[in-house]
Every structure is written in structure tokens, then in C-alpha cells.
Amino acid sequence: MTRVGVVGWGVYIPRYRIRTEEVARLWGDDPQRIADVYLVNEKSVEALDEDAVTIAVEAARIALRRAGVSRERVGAVYVGTESKPYAVKPIASILIDALGLRNDILAVDMEFACKAGGDGLAAIAGLVEAGRVEYGIAVGVDTSQGEPGEHLDYSASSGGAALVVGRDGVAAELEAMYAYASDTPDFWRRDGSPYPMHGEGFTGEPAYFRHIIEAVRGLVSKYGYKPADFTYAVFHQPNGRFPLRVASALGIPMDRVKPGIVVTHIGNTYNASALIGFARVLEMAKPGDRILLVTYGSGAGSDAFVFRVTDVITERQRAPAPAVEHMLRNKVYVDYAQYLKMRKMIKLLE
Amino acid sequence: MRHESVPMYWRNIPQYYRLVAKRCRQCGAVYFPPALRCRCGSAELEDYDELPHEGRLVEYTVLYQVGTDFLKQKPLIVGLVELNGGVRAVGQIVDAQPDRLAPGTRVELVFRRVAVDGRHGLIMYGYKFRPVQP
Q1: Which of A74, A178, A274, A350 has the fewest C-beta atoms lying within 10 Å of its C-beta?
Q2: What is the pLDDT of residues A19-61, one digit of tens each?
Q3: For residues A184 and A300, is the Cβ–Cβ distance under 8 A?
Q4: With an 8 Å Cβ cutoff, are A53 and B94 in contact?
Q5: Domains: count for chain A
Q6: pLDDT value at residue B2
Q7: Is the previous residue joined to A300 through a cis bond, with omega within 30 degrees of 0?
Q8: A191, exposed or middle or buried, with CB in 10 Å at 0-12, 13-18, 19+?
Q9: Does A143 share its domain with A199?
Q10: Does residue A212 contact residue A46 with C-beta atoms inside 8 Å?
């Protein structure tokens, strides 16, 4: 029997974008300096009538279409996000009815900053391996928050990615995974707070770099991989600089990392960040390629996965479903006022 | 604000979320929005969950005078869409500029927020359409 793995993928990126220079214009920053520091040229913005629920539905619809899996065979749906429209009321149950899935399945919302989407992938892989479900859908989605004028205003963006995970029709087999987590005060949002806070000085070394490097080193030493084994490496992308730096620390050449970097074009989609990069790489991968996927969530933790691409990949790449490249290309620019309206940051009397 | 009641929204979820229609068991006619009785006289209608999610714009109108739920979304574009296969559905057209639309424009179904019951109430989701990007 073949290994569990990714049967289909789907990405949804809202059509609107705001340029880094437009945000810088508002807040008196030097746009060139900002773009140089974060390597983010523009970011995606959800429409007024979009949120984490609608984006999750769109990504999951595309993933199911690409996988060619019938709705009746899906036994679990996991959604990872930190931008739930409701503090209490799940997204996963809305997905069941929006996708027309069976009602007698496992539906779960998960939170671990930007890592929960990938955690859904790990959970579903386990359920499939145990024979409890045939297929599951893991979704990572966010309409991430950033305080206007603060540096997250340049990167926090919106998007979603969904993976159909199963054992039949696998396009990328899950070969190995390794996790690493610790209590790290790098980034948090208290209940009721509109915007997150950063623990000054914690964002880089003790948080992003420590957890990703430990997860990858653990994986490599447990399963005997070498950096050269990975055709592509995809990391969580809070900005354009961090994934390049972490790859260099791990001895992974730049040309293996760059194909999976989408933050430059759409900003940081949080729970969808690494997964959109992964989907983009799946759309260019060849049978036999090995893909390293590493998520990261503040607070903090990192999951490292290794996938081996199968012959099924070419069929999935040709499936009648929108590609990541198509979503990246189709865009409409908005100004800062439209951005505030779309992100519901203008205070309205209701 | 005046909008649909929570029970009514809940009852219509299959129709709003994924275009679940009714099909006549006698003559096969499909109805969207769902009907209770078929033109052939039969009252034996079953759920039909297979309407295509793509079609063409038949006609549309641009509204500047809108209900309270839509005041912040002006102008509101409402279109009549002929889904592939021939069934027609009325819906909001989004991600579109009115002057770039025309009868025949290819559209696809999207899932969006339709109405929001204030700051503390329910968010009501449903289908809308948007132009297909080449």
C-alpha cells in the first residue's frame, strides 16, 4: 500500500493588493528601505465581503477539484487560523456545508499562531495512517492583523491553502516529519486585542530561527537526509529575508528556496504562508523530487515535513483547477483608504 | 438592521452555500431557487446538489439605492446568471467593475459574506458570482 500524502492542493489569494510604497506614503517611511528590509513589494488584501471562512471555502473547493476526490470520501476537515471571524463558532463546520461534505466526519478548528494549518496536515496524516479516515482536508488560512503604521502593516495579508490528504492517488508522499516547540514570547495577541504584539528582540534568533533549525536538524539526523536531498525547500515566510537566511544556516542552496517564496508578492498570509509556497512548488515539481516543508508558529513551534513527489503529480498539475501562478498574477491595486475599508478597520456604527 | 431571520438563514444554507436546487422526480426539471411543486404538476421534488459553478451573465443592474445590509458595499451589482446547463440564478456580482461587465461575461461562483447582523450577531454567508479571469 502506498504511503499517505498530498492528493490535491488548492490556494486562494484575494484579488486585491496594496503596494509597500502606498503604505509607506501614509506613515512617512522610506519605501525603498522598507522593501529592502522585508523583501515585500506588495501584499494581498481581502475584499470587504471576504474573511477567513470564505477564503478557506475557496481554497478547499479548488483542492477537492484538483484531487478529484468525491465529497463522500472525506472523513476529516481541519482548519488552522488565527483570524477567526467568530471568537466562538467553528470554521470547519461551515466548510462541511459549503463543500457538501458528509456530516458524520471530524471537523476541527486549531490555533497555534501560523503553524496550525500544517498541524492539521500532521493530524490528518495520522488519521489516514491509522485507517480511521480515507481522506481529510487540512486548511491554513488567515486575514492577518497588523496595527496601522506598525511594521506588520507592510506584511500582514490574506490568503488560504488547502491540502487533500489520503493514501489513494497521492501526488506527494509524506516521507518524514519532525516537530519542535517551546514557550517563547515572540508574538501574541490577547483575547479581545485587535492587533498582535511582539516581544522585542525575540522575533528572530530565539523564535523563528531556533525552532525551524531545530526541527530540520532533528529531521535530518533522525531520518538520515542531507541538504542536497531536497529539490525544493519551503519555509514559513513572515518576510522575504527570513526564509533565505534560515536556508543558508541549514546549508540549503538559494535556488532550492526561491521557487517557494511568495511573500514578496502577497505578504505574509500566516497559516497559509508556507502552504502556498508548498503548493507553488508542487505545481512545478517532477516525479522523484523531494520537498522539505517547514512551518513556523509564534509562541513557538515548527513542523518539518519531507515529501517525495510521485508520478501522479503531472496529472494533478494538469487538473482543471486554478494554479497559484494564476492567483499571483490576477490582481487589482487598492489605495490605503480602500485597504482600510476592505479590512474593516474603519470604525462604523452598526 | 433588517435582514433574514436566523432560522430562515439556517434553513436555506444548502441553497445559499452551494446552490442546492430541487429536481422533479417525474419530469427532471431543475428549480433554483428550490420550488415546492413542478410545472408538470408533480410535488415530488428531490434535492439536486450538482448545479455547475460556472456560467454566463445574462443581464445585470447597478444599484446605488440599496438595503441597509448593503449600504457599505455600494454600488451593488446584481446579475442574472445562466449556469452551464441552463439553470438561471440571481446573485451579487463581485470583484468586478460595472463598466467592464456585459451580457455574456463568463462568471464563476464564489463564497462570500452576504449580511452581518451588527457587531455581535450572526455572519450570514452565501454564494455570489465574479467574472472569470483568463
Answers
A1: A350
A2: 999 999 999 999 999 999 999 999 999 999 999 999 999 999 9
A3: yes
A4: no
A5: 2
A6: 57
A7: yes
A8: exposed
A9: no
A10: no
Residue A294: inside a domain: yes
Q: Quick check: A97 and B13 CB within 8 A?
A: yes
CA distances from A286 to A247, A290, A310, B84, B130 (A): 22, 9, 8, 34, 33
A55 in any annotated domain: yes
**What is the CA A72 to chain-centroid distance, rounded?**
26
> Which candidate, A8, A140, A3, A141, places its Cα nearest to that of A73?
A8
ipTM of the complex: 0.95
Residues B8, A88: Cα–Cα separation, whole Å: 21
Annotate A35-79 with DSSP letters as a single string. HHHH---EEEE--TT--HHHHHHHHHHHHHHHHT--GGGEEEEEE
Instruction: Inspect the interface and report whether the beta carbons of A48 and B72 lie closer than 8 Å.
Output: yes
Burial annotation A241-260 (CB, 10 A radius, 16+ → b, else e) = bbbbebbeebebeeebbebb
Backbone angles phi, psi at A60, to 5 degrees: -70, -35
Chain A partners within 8 Å of B14 (Cβ): 97, 100
Give A188-197 pLDDT, tens digit per residue: 999 989 999 9
Taking every pair of Cα atoms in chain A, the longest distance, rounded to a whole number of angstroms, is: 59
| ∠ Cα B91 B93 B98 (to 5°) | 135
Range of the domain at A105: 5-172+314-342
Average pLDDT over chain A reads 96
* Selected residue of B125, B128, B130 to mutate for chain A interface (largest A Cβ count, 10 A): B125
Confidence label for A2 from pLDDT (cuts 50, 70 and 90): confident
β-strands A332-333, A16-19: how paired? parallel
All structural domains of chain B with their residue ranges: 6-131
Cβ-based neighbours of B45, under 8 Å, separated by 6 or more: B22, B23, B24, B25, B31, B34, B35, B36, B37, B38
| A348 found inside a domain | no
Write out chain B residues lying below 8 Å of A53, CB-based.
111, 113, 123, 125
Contact A104, A71 (CB under 8 A): no
Q: How far apart are CA A19 and CA A38, in angstroms?
A: 13
Calpha distance A14→A19 (Å, rounded): 15
**pLDDT tens by residue, A161-211:** 999 999 999 999 999 999 999 999 999 999 989 999 988 788 899 999 999
The answer to whether A58 contacts B110, with C-beta atoms less than 8 Å apart, is yes
A349 found inside a domain: no
